[in-house]
Structure formats: structure tokens, C-alpha cells
Amino acid sequence: MLFSAVESVREAVGRRVKLILRRSVQLEVKGDKVENRVLALASHRAYLLTARIPSKIEQSFSCLDIQGISSNKPTQLVLEHERGSWSLRLGSVEEVDEVIAHIGVCLQRIRPSSSPVKVMRKLSLKPPERTTALQAIWDDQGSADLGPCGGFSHQYWCVCDYLGLPYREEVQWDVDTIYLTQDSRELNLQDFIHLENRDLVAIIAALEYNQWFTKVSAKDYKLSSDVCDQILRVVARSSRLEELVLDNAGLRSDFAQKLAGALSQNPASTLHTLILTNNSLEDKGVAALSAQLAKLPMGLKHLNLSRTSMSPKGVNSLCQALCANPVVASTLSHLDLSGNSLKGDDLQNLHSFLSHPNCLETLDLSNSDCSLDLNLVRVLTVFMLTCFSAYLYRKCKEIPSSFKQFFSCAQALSSVSLSGTRLPLEALKALLLGLGCNPNLSDVSLDLSCCELRSGGSQILEGCIAEIPNISSLDISDNGLDIDLTTLLVWLAKNRSIRNLSIGKNFNNIKSKNVAQVLDNLVHMIQEEESPLTSLSLADSKLKADLSIVLNALGSNTSLTKLDISGNAMGDMGAKMLAKALQINTKLRTVVWDRNNISPQGLQDVAAALEKNYTIRFMPVPIMDAAQALKANPEKTEDALLKMEQYLLRNHETRKYLQEQAYRLQQGIVTTTTQQMMDTMCVKVQDHLNSLKFTETSLVLDDMKVAENLMKDARNSKRLLPNLYHLKNGGSQEAFVGAIQDTLQSMAGEVARVMDAQLQTMLVSMVDSAEGLCPHVMKRSNLRQELLKAGAGRMTVPRSFVTTTLLEQSGVDIINKISEVKLSMASFLSDRIVDEILESLSRSQHTLADHLIRKGQTLLHKEPQMETEVLDEMVLQPANHNQEQKQMHDRERQHGLEDMDSCFDLDKALEDVPIHVEDPPPPPTPLHPSDRMSTCYGDLPPPPTSPDTDSVYLGELPPVEHMTLESQTKLRPKPKKRTKPSRQPVGPFREQVPYFSSNTVTSP
């Protein structure tokens, strides 16, 4: 009968719902009248069912509906919820407290940040001691694991049940699997926008209770009013939400007003990042939001209101609020107001905010028509800006002196972007002179792309750039420089700080005969000894065959690590030149090369070159070229692309994983060879022990005891190599690695000393661990000292290795080298101890066999005939067994580790390939671009010569000998020049300062 009642309740509730408590109760209806019912509790809902069979659900409510719980009489329980109340009578006080305890645990699982008493809103128990006892139960349950991502899936299920929405298992799987494995604290609505809006409502609603997620983001998706309302509800109630990113979400001014109201309702808000870019908030919405931003207790770190249709009025409201909040001055580091119309002079509150002490690092006023007048520039100089973006008009009559003052006095500027600006030449001059005389700055990134500089801008750059010591990245692409690049590159080569240079889209109007001269100067720049240049972009320059001049110089280049040659239409011949350069270049790490009209054969050439290159890490698939090549020859194209991906993946795989592979190989060999021999020997010894188990001679008993102990060591030896290799010295593996990484900034000798100390400690710990696993064999005299002495000789790391590694990939290489030595030590110790066990077992088996012979007993052979013969041979020839063991372990080490070492040696060997340098030509003869490749390709046969001295060779990359052309009339007197030179010679930077300060350069 009881079984039928339980099954009836399950059928009524649903078998997918797990019930945690069932109790028979009496429901008070009118007056003292009561009716029998069944109370069933699930983790998300309470059910009241009829007591008859089959049971039916009369009422139910979600745990989130609870308004209060009271028990003023010993057996009475009153549950209040949003739609009414249940007045129940149970069998005893203990049953009442049990029901209340289960409800509290359910609420605590849904809202782990709040006490169940607080979530219940009202808890009235008599006597009060009952509350204390229940609180103790809830405190014990508070430390229980909530599940993945703070129990989000359970909270999402409860919310779906509460709102009457369907539960999507896809959401649960994504959060419990993807978000958990990525350790992501950001709930990105982009992952779920394929669902209905009501599903998004349930997902967002769960964040009201969740303590895992701290960020909500949505981009380029128009949010419905229901979703927006739920986001506002989370903002008003969550104490964990720190970042809110709603980019281009179709928000209006009313949302900003409601957001201000939500923030005002949450005194425990931890929101510090607010990004509402690309939403039409207008001045009305910004003003309402600003009023609440002034009251945020934690201040703001990041505020982005770019492209929100603000005017100076809205900016003034915002900045007034920022000034009113004293916390903002010490927290706000990023302020983006770009893309708003800020014309006019009425920005007093912006000036006031910037003039007060603050910690701004990034200020973006680009595309805002904000005039950089004297007051604004003056206040910008007093704080630590690291990023500055603005927009200037070429048609402005004059550039204020404060513009130069800003760049000469900035304290922490690291990025200046004026891209897309029709930059006045006077402004360019003021900018460069300001940066050049600022001693506070270093590593400044200067973006002057698409500024229409042309010849006038080139002249200014030529006069300044060589002496500016703090520009590390310069982008002057798409400025119509053309032939002016010839001289400009000479001055750029004199700069010792520029590491990243972009000069693409500057060859559109240059004559073909002059391209080679420009590229020659570029080659001289990148091949110059101790050149600081590490990144070069020639993107979208349409150089075609002329690009081979630069590609030919890559073979011997020792500075460039990144090259962008996309959009140059170099064709298959250019691909051939690139392939040859990649085969010998060991410095490049990144090559971008799409949009070059490369056929399947060109892709095959580059793929074949990558097979021999172990240093390229990033080489994006040339999508545009591949799309065209697939139409011509899909099989050949797919094969080339697949090979390129495989070789890049090979180059990316760090040697740390190879060490794990070597360990698994070593472990597998030991398991299938030595351990099998050990097991067979143990079976033989056990047979002897069984035959001697009734002996009473003390000498025989002692030998039997020794044999039993050796068998224990043999069994433990199976765990010897794994335990030694995975030994955690001094606690966690991270602590050991940290001891090395903390010393990498010091001298190489110091790092080597730390490594030696760590390896010595590791060796001692390994020996100690081995002694704990195999104590009996380790008791042999001097074995411990022998192991320590022999291990010490195997753990040395050359100082030269440390010095080389510190220059590049220091942390990874050092730790990998330690892993290599660690595997070597673990293998050596394991092999030596296993050999010792096998030798001892062999002697013990020999001794036991002698005892059996003396007693006249025959050995019991339970093994197959072949195995017995092998064992007898081993017993009779222990010396041969030891020799075989040594040979076997030698083969293991060669097979398991030398392949790994070959990878190391190959990589280092490729980096140390000597470059053969030909004798330089006589001084009067200029160096032809093709001659540079003689330094890389030795004595290869020269290509066919061309009568055109300005043509570019597109064949192989050999040295080419040129005949010196002599003019037969060079001794004739030259006529006097009748025209003045069009350009004055440019002097040194410091001589030109007065010139730039007193003259106005006009655009041509």
C-alpha cells in the first residue's frame, strides 16, 4: 500500500522531478476542519497532493514564490507564497523543522549569496531555539559544491519553472561544458540569440541569483523590451555584476533612464564597466544616467559612450557627474566619447573634470569635432594618458601652440592615432617636434595613415624623424608619398627606435623605373647591421614583380619577425622567391601574403618551403588566392593548404608536449619489456617459495624472507617511473616552476645556479621516493650514494643553454629542458633500481633452487615449456641477463628520447645556420639588388641577364656579376646649370628646429 502511494505521487508530479521529501499532512480549510493531504518537496517547487490513490496535484508553488514561513504551534506549519498560503499540521515538531530545513537548503542552493532567512523574508518559529538549530544546518550546507559555474543550470531550471518557460538543455550544456572549460565569467548573449526572446529572458533572469558570472555582453543584436527589462532587473538586484556591455543593441534614451533607476535600487552594486556604444541614448538619456553615476559607491573603471548621439550638453552633464563622485577620480582609467558631435566651445565641465587629479589612461575624442583649444590641451598634460585619439581639420587656420605643448609634456602617452585625418602640415610639424623633445615618453605608437601627407608631409618627416627617440611604431601608409619615399626611407633608416613600420599604399603614382630605387633604399634599411626594425608592412602596394627585390633580401635578414606583403599581385614568381627565402630565413615568425594572384603551383612551392622552416608561427591562409586556385585545381590547392597548416601546427607545438610524449614512450617500453621479465621472474620465485613453505631451517627461512621482500619491491617497481617523473617537489608543480620564472630577469648565471639547486633537490626527492617505495633493495650498502652520485652527473644544464634561452622563449625552453633532464633522471633511477631488483631476484631464485636441490625436491614447473626454458637460461646465465638488461635500456633511451633530442637539435641548428658572405664589391661599383642574395645562395648559377638595367630579376636568387659601364665622354667639361634646385638640402634635426618654428609649410 505504501509503495503504491509513493508511486502514485511520483506519477502525479512527474518521474523527471526528483522529490527530496514526502510527508503526510493535514490541511486546515475552514475553522478547525482539516483534510488529509500529501506534501512533496522538490529542489525547486513544493507540491500539495490528494491523499487518495491515484494522487493528483491540488496546488504547487515555486521556491522563488515564498513570502514567509511560520510555526507558532508545535505541529503547525504555515507556508506563505505569492498566490496565498498553506496552513498544515504535521505529526511532530521534528517533522515541521525537517520541512523548513529542506526548504531553506533549496533556497540556499538557488541563492547562495543570501541567507535562507533573508530569502524567506519572514521566518517565525516558537520557541526561538528552533531557528538557531535550523541556521546551524544551513551553515553546514553553505559550503557544499553548487555545481558548474556556480550552479547556473539549477538556477536556470528554477527560473524557467518560476516563469513558466521551457527549459532548454542546450543552454545547460553550453554553460556546464563550454563556459566551465573556458573558465569564462562573461555571459555572452551572442551564444544564444538563435533562441527565442523568452529564452533569453530566462537566461538573464538566472543571473539575479548566480555568483559565477560577472559580465553580460551583447553586440550587434537588437534587444527586445522584455530582455531589456530583465537586464535592468539583474542590475537592480545582483551584487556580482561588474561589467555591462550592450554595443549596438538598439537602445534608446528611455533605457538609460531605467538603467539609472535600477542602479539607484542596488546599494550593493559592484558595476565598474559600462559600455553602451552605438546606441541612440541622446542627451536626455545620458543626463538621467549621469545623475546616478555620481552616486555609484565603487566608482567606474571603464566608461564608453561613443556614438550615442550626445551633444556638448550631454557631455557636460556626464562630466559634472564624474566630478561629483569622489571615487571616480581614483578609478576611471578609460573614457571614450568618440563619434559624438562636440562642436563648439561649451565644454567647461569636460575641461573641469580633466583638470582635476585623476587616473585616466585612455581618452578617445576622435570623430567628435572637439577642438583642441588651449584650455583642453593644457589640462591633458597633467595626467597619465596612454592613448590619445582625436580628429583635426586641414582647413583650420592655425594650430594652437598648446597642441605641440601637449605632446612635449605628456607623461605616459603610448598611442597616438590620427588615422583618416586630413592632417595640416603645421599640425604634423608640431606633433613631431613635441614628441621629439619629450623626455618622458618611450615606445609611442604613431598612426598617421590616410592623412594625405604627400610631398609636404614627407619633407617634414625627413627633417624630424631621424632624431625622434621615442616612436616605436609608425604607420604612414596611404599618404601618396610615391617617389618621396626614396629620401624618406634614408632618414627612417637613421632612426634607432622605430620597430614597426607600415608604408603600404604609397606606390600608386610612382613610375615603374623609380620603384626599384625606392625598394633598394628599403632593402638597405632592413639589412642594415643592428637594424631595430622587426615588423614591416607593404600591404596593398601592388608592387607585382618588383616585390622580389624585398623578398630577395629576406634570406639574410636578421631583424624582421613580421612581414605583411598582402595585396601586391606578385604572382607565382613572387611565391617562388618567398619560398626560397623561407627555406633559409630563421627570424621571421609572421607572414601575411593574401591577394597576390598565386596559382595552385605557387601555393605548393610555399608549402614545400614551410616543410623546411621551423620558425614561422603565424601565416594566415591566403583566402582570396585560395578561392581562385580552388577553381583551377582543387586537389592541388587543398593539398598545399593542408600541408601549410600541418607545418605551422608543428612549429607551434612546444617541446613541453614532446617531453610528455617521450615519457609515455619510455613508460610503454618499460611496461612491455622489463616489467614482463620482472613478472616472469616473480612467478618463478613464488614457485620456489611454495615448494619450501614447510621448511623449518632458519637459513632457508631467512632466504625465503629476503625473496618475499624482493617480490614486494618488484610489485612496487611498476609505479616507480610514473612516481619519479610526476614527483611534485616542495608541494605543487606551479611552485617549482615559479622558482625558476622569478629568476629569469636576473643574470644567466643566477638562473643556472637556481636550476642546479632545484635539480639537486629533485634528485634527492626522487631517491627518497624510490626508497619509500622499494625500501628493502635501497638498504643495500652505498646504493643511495651511488644513485645520487650517478644522478648528479646526468642533471647538469650547460650555462650556454641558459644564456641562449633567456633571449627568446626563455620560460618555456628552461622548463622544457628541466622536463628533459627530469625524464632522464627518472628513467635512469628507475632502470637502475629495476636492474638491481632483477639481479637480486635472480640471485634469490638461484639460492632457493640450491635449497631445493639439497633437499632432493624437484621444481614444480607450472609455466609453459617455452617460458620455463627462458627462465632456466636466465637462472643459469645471470651475467648474460645483466648485459641484456643494459642493452635493452640503452635501446629504450635511444628509441624513446633521441627522437625528442633530434627535434631540439634541429630547431637550434636551423637558427644557427651560418650565412656565407661573399666578398663585397669594390667601392665605386654600387650594389645591385640581386647581389644581396649572394650572401644567401652561395655559388648557384646566375640567372640570364637583361639589357634593361632597371629591370628586376625574377629567376633564382644567385649572385650576379655586372660589368662596369664607363662613359667615353665623361672627361668633357659640363655646362653650367641654368635652373635652381627645386628642393633645399635637409640638414640635421637640431639645425632644423628654428626653421620649423618660424616657417609655415603649405601643401602643394
Structure description:
Among the domains are: 2-141, Roll (PH-domain like), CATH 2.30.29.30; 145-250, no CATH class; 655-911, no CATH class. Helices cover 50% and strands 10% of the residues. The protein has a 15-stranded parallel sheet with strand order 9-10-11-12-13-14-15-16-17-18-19-20-21-22-23, with no helix packed on it. The protein has an eight-stranded mixed sheet with strand order 4-3-2-1-7-6-5-8, sandwiched between helices. The termini are far apart. It has 1004 residues and is of the alpha/beta class. Helix 7 runs parallel beside helix 8 (225-237) and helix 30 (748-773) runs antiparallel to helix 32.
Molecular shape: flat
Supply the number of helical segments. 38
Q: Class by helix and strand content? A: alpha/beta
Which percent bin holds the helix content? Answer: 40-55%
The proportion of strand residues reads 5-15%
Count of beta strands: 23
As a whole number of angstroms, the C-alpha radius of gyration is 40 Å
Q: Report the end-to-end length measured between terminal Cα atoms.
A: 103 Å
InterPro entries: CARMIL_C (IPR031943), CARMIL_PH (IPR041245), Leu-rich_rpt (IPR001611), LRR_dom_sf (IPR032675), PH-like_dom_sf (IPR011993), PP1-Reg/Actin-Interact_Protein (IPR051279)
Keywords: Cell membrane, Cytoplasm, Leucine-rich repeat, Membrane, Repeat
Pfam families: Carm_PH, CARMIL_C, LRR_6
Organism: Anabas testudineus
Gist of the model:
The protein is α/β, with parallel strands linked by helices. Helices cover 50% and strands 10% of the residues.
